[in-house]
Amino acid sequence: MCRLWSTLYHKRREQCVLFLEDVFGATDHPEALRKAGFYVECFRAHFSREGKPLKSVADPQIIKFCAENKYVLFTLDKRMKDMHLETIRLTDVAIVATSSNRCGLSPWINAIIKAKRRIERHVRKTGRPWFAVLSRNGDLRVQTISASPGSVRIEISVGTPKASQR
Q1: Which of 40, 82, 125, 137 is buried most, with the most CB atoms less than 10 Å from its CB?
Q2: Residue 152: pLDDT above 50?
Q3: Which residues are paired to 19 by β-bridges?
Q4: Cβ-based neighbour number of residue 133 at 10 Å
Q5: Percent of the chain at pLDDT exceeding 70
C-alpha cells in the first residue's frame, strides 16, 4: 500500500513554465503573466524563421516540443485532446485549454492568473500527461490521460472554493 501511495503522489520538482500559442505571443499578454509570477515561453521564440513566426506548425509537433521541455501548453483549442489524443498519450505533456475561444484574450489571461496556484499544484502533483479545461472564472477541470486506450481516466475538478468552504 505504501509503495502504491508513493507512486501516485510523487512530487515533481519541475518549474511551471507556460508555453503560449502564437496568438498570445504577439501582444503584451505574456508580460502580464510574467508580472503575475509565471515563467512564460512564447511560440515565436521557438518556432520562427528570420524573425517571423512559422505559420504551418502542426499541433503534434508543438505537443512533443512542450513535453520534451516540460512546458505547460496553454491553448485556445479545447478540442486538442480529442484531435491529438494518441500524441498526448505517447508524450509527457501538460495542456491547459480554454473552455471557449469566442471572447478576446484578456479574459483568459485573467482566468489563468486566478488559477495560478491550482495550475502549479497540478504541475507538481499530477502525473503527466494531463489535459485541463480553464473557465473564464478561473475554474480548472483536470483530466489525466493514461498510456493505454482501454484504461480509466481520472477526472479531478478543481474550482473556486464556495463561501461556506473558505
Answers
A1: 40
A2: no
A3: 41, 73
A4: 18
A5: 81
Please determine, for residue 49, whether its predicted confidence score (pLDDT) is greater than 80.
yes
Q: Which residues are CB-neighbours of 136 under 8 A, at least 6 positions away?
A: 99, 100, 103, 107, 108, 110, 111
**Residue type, position 164, single letter:** S
C-alpha cell at 81: 485532446
Residues 6+ apart with CB under 8 A from 25: 42, 43, 44, 45, 53
Collapsing DSSP to helix, strand or coil, 161 comes out as coil
Q: For the chain, give the number of residues.
A: 166
Is-contact 139 154, C-beta < 8 A?
Answer: no
- Helix, strand, coil content of the chain in percent (nearest 5): 40, 20, 40
Name the region of 114 (left: φ>0; alpha: ψ -120 to 50; beta: rest): alpha
Supply the pLDDT for residue 103. 83
The DSSP code for 128 is S
Q: How many CB atoms lie within 10 A of CB 139?
A: 17
User: Does residue 63 contact residue 73 with C-beta atoms inside 8 Å?
Assistant: yes
Alpha-carbon span 144 to 53, nearest angstrom: 31
Distance from CA of residue 110 to its chain's centroid?
15
Tell me what pLDDT residue 32 has. 95
